[in-house]
Design goal:
The chain is of the alpha/beta class. 33% of the residues lie in helices and 20% in strands. Strand 3, helix 2 and strand 4 form a beta-alpha-beta unit. The relative contact order is 0.11.
Length: 230
């Protein structure tokens, strides 16, 4: 993580902020309040959102963060009360990238950051571009376009799409997709994959691109090759 990364936390205890600043002075750490920053400093932004907040639900806060210009592309971790499967699914549907079960302290937060800092990048594609009709993904640039227009997808969605484009006509189970996007240590409920795939589909369709995936009942998902044209 770069030196100008920003960590925003809902209702943090003073000891939590002090512990983070002492152990990671390279991070910019601040409470996450209603007055969101107008713009980030150029580095990555991480948000840790409690399931319950004094004046609203954490789910409402996550949706607010996804709509706000300064935080819509941030990495959002929801701090759950119990870790029940329903809580996990609702957190992901609201827009969280992942979750952990509270209470949150400096050690646990930094362990979560270290997991992502140490995680290797997805292996580079052996092809310069991945295509499916007019849908084109450039792995090197981390960009996807449809009919030449640049589309906005979050990292998990981009990785999922790249995986399917690289492996057409293969059905992948939910467990295989969890392994592919590197969350096997964090996700035990395979139904959360349905949330990830749903985000990818909605992200494409909302921007005028087609949904290239097909659900295979009781098996998983597949991207079917397009028929060849003369």
């Amino acid at each position: 993580m770069s030196a100008n990364a920003t960590i925003l936390i809902t209702a943090p205890a003073p000891t939590l902020l002090q512990g983070l600043r002492r152990r990671r002075p390279d991070l910019s750490v601040a409470p996450l309040e209603d007055g969101l920053p107008l713009a980030a400093d150029g580095g990555p932004v991480w948000c840790f959102v409690d399931w319950l907040l004094p004046d609203r639900s954490g789910l409402e806060m996550v949706r607010h963060l996804r709509e706000a210009r300064a935080t819509r592309d941030s990495h959002i971790t929801m701090v759950l009360e119990s870790g029940e499967p329903d809580e996990k699914r609702r957190a992901l549907r609201a827009g969280a990238d992942d979750y952990l079960v509270g209470p949150l302290n400096a050690e646990r937060l930094l362990e979560r950051l270290a997991t992502y800092e140490a995680k290797p990048a997805a292996p580079p594609s052996t092809r310069s571009r991945l295509t499916h009709g007019e849908l084109v993904l450039d792995p090197a640039a981390h960009q996807v376009r449809y009919q030449g227009r640049l589309l906005t997808l979050r990292p998990n969605e981009l990785r999922l799409l790249a995986h399917f484009l690289e492996n057409p006509d293969q059905v992948f189970s939910r467990a295989a997709l969890i392994e592919r996007i590197g969350k096997d240590d964090e996700v035990t409920d395979e139904r959360t994959v349905d949330v990830w795939v749903g985000r990818l589909r909605r992200g494409l369709v909302a921007q005028g691109a087609p949904d290239p995936l097909r659900t295979v009942r009781s098996a998983g998902y597949v991207l079917d090759s397009l028929p060849e044209t003369d």
